[in-house]
Amino acid sequence: MPKGILLGFLAFASFAISDAFIKSIHGALPAYQLGFFSAAFSVLLLPFVWKRGTSAVDMVRPKRPGLWVLRGILSVINILTSVLAFTHLSMAEAFALIFLMPLAVTAMSVWFLSEKVTLSGWAAISLGFIGVLVVLRPGFREIEIGHIAALTCGFTGAGLSVLLRKVGQTEKPISLFGAGQLFPLVIFALLMIPGFVPPTPMQWVAIAFYATLSAGGNMLLMFASRLSPASQIAPTQYSQMLWGLGLGYVFFHDRIDLITLLGVVLIVGAGLWLFLPKRSKSVKA
Most exposed of 108, 146, 176, 277 (fewest Cβ within 10 Å)? Predict the structure, then answer.
Protein backbone atom coordinates (compact mmCIF):
# COMPACT_ATOMS: atom_id res chain seq x y z
CA MET A 1 0.00 0.00 0.00
CA PRO A 2 1.43 3.44 -0.93
CA LYS A 3 2.60 5.43 2.11
CA GLY A 4 0.32 8.35 1.30
CA ILE A 5 -2.80 6.18 1.37
CA LEU A 6 -1.67 4.49 4.59
CA LEU A 7 -1.15 7.90 6.20
CA GLY A 8 -4.62 8.87 4.97
CA PHE A 9 -6.15 5.88 6.78
CA LEU A 10 -4.17 6.76 9.92
CA ALA A 11 -5.25 10.40 9.70
CA PHE A 12 -8.94 9.59 9.52
CA ALA A 13 -8.60 7.00 12.28
CA SER A 14 -7.09 9.77 14.39
CA PHE A 15 -10.01 12.08 13.57
CA ALA A 16 -12.58 9.37 14.41
CA ILE A 17 -11.01 8.59 17.80
CA SER A 18 -10.78 12.33 18.46
CA ASP A 19 -14.52 12.63 17.80
CA ALA A 20 -15.16 9.75 20.20
CA PHE A 21 -13.48 11.75 22.97
CA ILE A 22 -15.86 14.63 22.20
CA LYS A 23 -18.79 12.27 22.59
CA SER A 24 -17.38 10.89 25.85
CA ILE A 25 -17.86 14.31 27.47
CA HIS A 26 -21.63 13.98 26.80
CA GLY A 27 -22.21 17.71 26.38
CA ALA A 28 -21.05 18.52 29.93
CA LEU A 29 -18.85 21.31 28.57
CA PRO A 30 -19.89 24.09 26.17
CA ALA A 31 -19.14 23.36 22.51
CA TYR A 32 -17.21 26.63 22.12
CA GLN A 33 -14.97 25.66 25.04
CA LEU A 34 -13.99 22.43 23.30
CA GLY A 35 -13.56 24.39 20.07
CA PHE A 36 -11.10 26.71 21.80
CA PHE A 37 -8.87 23.84 22.89
CA SER A 38 -9.02 22.34 19.39
CA ALA A 39 -7.85 25.61 17.86
CA ALA A 40 -5.19 26.07 20.54
CA PHE A 41 -3.65 22.65 19.92
CA SER A 42 -3.60 23.36 16.18
CA VAL A 43 -0.62 25.62 16.86
CA LEU A 44 1.33 22.35 16.60
CA LEU A 45 0.80 22.61 12.84
CA LEU A 46 2.54 25.99 12.56
CA PRO A 47 6.01 24.59 11.67
CA PHE A 48 4.47 22.78 8.68
CA VAL A 49 3.06 25.97 7.10
CA TRP A 50 5.93 28.28 8.01
CA LYS A 51 7.94 28.71 4.83
CA ARG A 52 11.16 30.60 4.17
CA GLY A 53 10.47 34.31 3.89
CA THR A 54 7.33 34.04 6.01
CA SER A 55 6.66 36.50 8.83
CA ALA A 56 4.11 36.45 11.64
CA VAL A 57 2.39 39.46 10.08
CA ASP A 58 1.51 37.32 7.05
CA MET A 59 -0.98 35.46 9.24
CA VAL A 60 -3.22 38.54 9.27
CA ARG A 61 -2.15 40.16 6.00
CA PRO A 62 -3.93 38.24 3.23
CA LYS A 63 -4.05 39.26 -0.41
CA ARG A 64 -7.83 38.82 -0.50
CA PRO A 65 -9.15 40.05 2.90
CA GLY A 66 -12.82 39.33 2.16
CA LEU A 67 -12.24 35.65 1.41
CA TRP A 68 -9.79 35.46 4.34
CA VAL A 69 -12.51 36.66 6.74
CA LEU A 70 -15.04 34.27 5.17
CA ARG A 71 -12.62 31.37 5.71
CA GLY A 72 -12.27 32.37 9.36
CA ILE A 73 -16.03 32.56 9.91
CA LEU A 74 -16.62 29.21 8.21
CA SER A 75 -13.88 27.66 10.37
CA VAL A 76 -15.63 28.84 13.54
CA ILE A 77 -18.97 27.41 12.42
CA ASN A 78 -17.38 24.16 11.22
CA ILE A 79 -15.62 23.45 14.52
CA LEU A 80 -18.66 24.39 16.61
CA THR A 81 -21.11 22.27 14.61
CA SER A 82 -18.73 19.30 14.57
CA VAL A 83 -18.68 19.25 18.37
CA LEU A 84 -22.48 19.60 18.54
CA ALA A 85 -23.02 16.82 15.98
CA PHE A 86 -20.97 14.23 17.86
CA THR A 87 -22.43 15.34 21.18
CA HIS A 88 -26.05 14.81 20.13
CA LEU A 89 -25.95 12.03 17.51
CA SER A 90 -24.63 8.51 17.27
CA MET A 91 -21.19 8.49 15.69
CA ALA A 92 -22.37 6.67 12.56
CA GLU A 93 -25.27 9.08 12.01
CA ALA A 94 -23.04 12.13 12.53
CA PHE A 95 -20.44 10.82 10.09
CA ALA A 96 -23.11 9.97 7.51
CA LEU A 97 -24.43 13.54 7.40
CA ILE A 98 -20.99 15.16 7.57
CA PHE A 99 -19.91 12.94 4.66
CA LEU A 100 -22.07 15.13 2.44
CA MET A 101 -18.98 17.36 2.28
CA PRO A 102 -17.35 15.84 -0.86
CA LEU A 103 -20.72 15.83 -2.62
CA ALA A 104 -21.30 19.48 -1.70
CA VAL A 105 -17.76 20.37 -2.82
CA THR A 106 -18.48 18.85 -6.22
CA ALA A 107 -21.72 20.83 -6.58
CA MET A 108 -20.22 24.11 -5.29
CA SER A 109 -17.24 23.85 -7.62
CA VAL A 110 -19.55 24.36 -10.60
CA TRP A 111 -20.82 27.73 -9.42
CA PHE A 112 -17.82 29.09 -7.51
CA LEU A 113 -14.88 27.62 -9.44
CA SER A 114 -16.45 27.21 -12.90
CA GLU A 115 -15.44 23.56 -12.89
CA LYS A 116 -17.22 20.82 -14.81
CA VAL A 117 -19.03 17.85 -13.33
CA THR A 118 -19.75 14.66 -15.23
CA LEU A 119 -23.22 13.18 -15.53
CA SER A 120 -21.97 10.40 -13.26
CA GLY A 121 -20.92 13.05 -10.73
CA TRP A 122 -24.38 14.64 -10.72
CA ALA A 123 -25.91 11.20 -10.28
CA ALA A 124 -23.66 10.62 -7.25
CA ILE A 125 -24.68 13.98 -5.77
CA SER A 126 -28.36 13.14 -6.26
CA LEU A 127 -27.89 9.71 -4.67
CA GLY A 128 -26.13 11.29 -1.70
CA PHE A 129 -28.93 13.74 -1.05
CA ILE A 130 -31.47 10.92 -1.29
CA GLY A 131 -29.39 9.19 1.38
CA VAL A 132 -29.66 12.28 3.59
CA LEU A 133 -33.44 12.25 3.26
CA VAL A 134 -33.47 8.57 4.20
CA VAL A 135 -31.36 9.27 7.31
CA LEU A 136 -33.37 12.32 8.37
CA ARG A 137 -36.83 11.10 7.28
CA PRO A 138 -38.38 14.58 7.63
CA GLY A 139 -41.98 14.37 8.71
CA PHE A 140 -41.49 10.88 10.16
CA ARG A 141 -39.02 11.71 12.94
CA GLU A 142 -37.95 14.74 14.92
CA ILE A 143 -35.06 16.71 13.40
CA GLU A 144 -32.73 17.47 16.32
CA ILE A 145 -29.97 20.01 16.82
CA GLY A 146 -27.41 17.27 16.12
CA HIS A 147 -28.82 16.66 12.63
CA ILE A 148 -28.75 20.38 11.81
CA ALA A 149 -25.23 20.68 13.22
CA ALA A 150 -23.94 17.69 11.20
CA LEU A 151 -25.39 19.03 7.95
CA THR A 152 -24.00 22.49 8.68
CA CYS A 153 -20.62 20.97 9.45
CA GLY A 154 -20.64 19.17 6.11
CA PHE A 155 -21.60 22.26 4.12
CA THR A 156 -19.15 24.59 5.89
CA GLY A 157 -16.43 21.98 5.40
CA ALA A 158 -17.28 22.00 1.70
CA GLY A 159 -17.15 25.78 1.66
CA LEU A 160 -13.71 25.73 3.27
CA SER A 161 -12.48 23.24 0.69
CA VAL A 162 -13.78 25.34 -2.22
CA LEU A 163 -12.25 28.51 -0.73
CA LEU A 164 -8.91 26.74 -0.34
CA ARG A 165 -8.97 25.73 -4.00
CA LYS A 166 -9.93 29.28 -5.02
CA VAL A 167 -7.21 31.13 -3.10
CA GLY A 168 -4.70 28.36 -2.44
CA GLN A 169 -2.44 29.40 -5.32
CA THR A 170 -2.38 33.09 -4.42
CA GLU A 171 -2.40 33.18 -0.62
CA LYS A 172 0.56 32.15 1.52
CA PRO A 173 -0.01 28.95 3.57
CA ILE A 174 0.59 30.91 6.76
CA SER A 175 -2.23 33.33 5.81
CA LEU A 176 -4.65 30.46 5.25
CA PHE A 177 -3.56 28.98 8.56
CA GLY A 178 -4.13 32.32 10.29
CA ALA A 179 -7.73 32.58 9.11
CA GLY A 180 -8.52 28.96 9.96
CA GLN A 181 -7.03 29.03 13.47
CA LEU A 182 -6.97 32.62 14.74
CA PHE A 183 -10.68 33.24 14.19
CA PRO A 184 -11.78 30.17 16.25
CA LEU A 185 -9.13 30.85 18.87
CA VAL A 186 -10.19 34.46 19.44
CA ILE A 187 -13.97 34.03 19.08
CA PHE A 188 -14.16 30.92 21.28
CA ALA A 189 -11.91 32.57 23.89
CA LEU A 190 -14.27 35.57 24.06
CA LEU A 191 -17.28 33.28 24.41
CA MET A 192 -15.50 31.23 27.05
CA ILE A 193 -14.42 34.10 29.34
CA PRO A 194 -17.81 34.93 30.92
CA GLY A 195 -18.97 31.33 31.32
CA PHE A 196 -15.93 29.07 31.65
CA VAL A 197 -16.90 25.63 32.98
CA PRO A 198 -13.96 24.05 34.86
CA PRO A 199 -13.43 20.53 33.46
CA THR A 200 -13.07 17.58 35.80
CA PRO A 201 -9.75 15.67 35.73
CA MET A 202 -11.26 13.02 33.43
CA GLN A 203 -12.67 15.70 31.15
CA TRP A 204 -9.22 17.31 30.94
CA VAL A 205 -7.89 13.93 29.78
CA ALA A 206 -10.63 13.69 27.14
CA ILE A 207 -9.94 17.28 25.99
CA ALA A 208 -6.20 16.57 25.71
CA PHE A 209 -6.78 13.46 23.60
CA TYR A 210 -9.45 15.15 21.48
CA ALA A 211 -7.31 18.18 20.65
CA THR A 212 -4.04 16.26 20.22
CA LEU A 213 -5.56 13.59 17.97
CA SER A 214 -7.32 16.24 15.89
CA ALA A 215 -4.07 18.17 15.37
CA GLY A 216 -2.21 14.91 14.74
CA GLY A 217 -4.76 13.88 12.12
CA ASN A 218 -4.26 17.15 10.28
CA MET A 219 -0.49 16.66 10.32
CA LEU A 220 -0.82 13.11 8.98
CA LEU A 221 -3.12 14.39 6.24
CA MET A 222 -0.55 17.02 5.25
CA PHE A 223 2.14 14.35 4.93
CA ALA A 224 -0.25 12.08 3.03
CA SER A 225 -1.04 14.82 0.49
CA ARG A 226 2.66 15.20 -0.23
CA LEU A 227 3.08 11.50 -0.97
CA SER A 228 -0.06 10.60 -2.94
CA PRO A 229 -2.59 12.38 -5.20
CA ALA A 230 -5.68 13.81 -3.53
CA SER A 231 -7.89 11.49 -5.59
CA GLN A 232 -6.25 8.49 -3.89
CA ILE A 233 -6.36 9.93 -0.37
CA ALA A 234 -9.95 11.23 -0.45
CA PRO A 235 -11.67 7.80 -0.38
CA THR A 236 -9.77 6.89 2.81
CA GLN A 237 -12.07 9.37 4.59
CA TYR A 238 -14.86 6.81 4.42
CA SER A 239 -12.93 4.49 6.70
CA GLN A 240 -14.17 6.84 9.44
CA MET A 241 -17.59 5.23 9.10
CA LEU A 242 -16.18 1.86 10.18
CA TRP A 243 -14.50 3.56 13.13
CA GLY A 244 -17.75 5.36 13.93
CA LEU A 245 -19.79 2.16 13.87
CA GLY A 246 -17.22 0.28 15.98
CA LEU A 247 -16.48 2.98 18.55
CA GLY A 248 -20.15 3.91 18.83
CA TYR A 249 -21.22 0.31 19.40
CA VAL A 250 -18.46 -0.62 21.89
CA PHE A 251 -18.18 2.54 23.97
CA PHE A 252 -21.52 4.34 23.62
CA HIS A 253 -23.91 1.46 22.87
CA ASP A 254 -25.08 3.21 19.70
CA ARG A 255 -27.75 1.45 17.70
CA ILE A 256 -28.97 2.44 14.26
CA ASP A 257 -32.08 1.06 12.56
CA LEU A 258 -32.11 -0.53 9.10
CA ILE A 259 -33.56 2.55 7.39
CA THR A 260 -30.80 4.78 8.81
CA LEU A 261 -28.23 2.18 7.79
CA LEU A 262 -29.63 2.27 4.25
CA GLY A 263 -29.20 6.05 4.21
CA VAL A 264 -25.62 5.68 5.46
CA VAL A 265 -24.86 3.19 2.67
CA LEU A 266 -26.33 5.55 0.05
CA ILE A 267 -24.30 8.54 1.27
CA VAL A 268 -21.04 6.63 1.57
CA GLY A 269 -21.62 4.89 -1.76
CA ALA A 270 -22.33 8.23 -3.46
CA GLY A 271 -19.13 9.71 -2.05
CA LEU A 272 -17.04 6.79 -3.22
CA TRP A 273 -18.73 6.95 -6.63
CA LEU A 274 -17.19 10.39 -7.14
CA PHE A 275 -13.71 8.86 -7.07
CA LEU A 276 -14.36 6.07 -9.57
CA PRO A 277 -13.02 6.59 -13.11
CA LYS A 278 -15.55 8.60 -15.12
CA ARG A 279 -16.20 8.00 -18.79
CA SER A 280 -19.32 10.09 -19.13
CA LYS A 281 -19.13 13.34 -21.03
CA SER A 282 -18.64 16.35 -18.77
CA VAL A 283 -21.45 18.85 -18.58
CA LYS A 284 -21.50 22.30 -17.10
CA ALA A 285 -24.38 23.49 -15.02
Answer: 277
pLDDT tens per residue, range 20-74: 999 999 999 999 999 999 888 888 778 877 877 778 888 888 888 999 999 999 9
* 213 close to 11: Cβ distance less than 8 angstroms: no
- Cα(28)–Cα(8) distance, integer angstroms: 31
Please state the φ and ψ torsions of residue 141, each to the nearest 5 degrees: -150, 160
Indicate the Cα dihedral angle 129, 134, 136, 137, nearest 10°.
Answer: 120
Per-residue pLDDT at 285:
42
CA 148, CA 136: separation in Å to the nearest integer?
10
End-to-end CA distance of the chain: 37
The DSSP bridge partners found for residue 117 are: 283
Element (H, E) at 283: strand 282-283
What does the chain come to in residues? 285
The answer to pTM > 0.90 is no
Helical H segments across 168-200, by residue range: 173-192
- Classify 26 in phi/psi space as left (phi over 0), alpha (psi -120 to 50) or beta: left
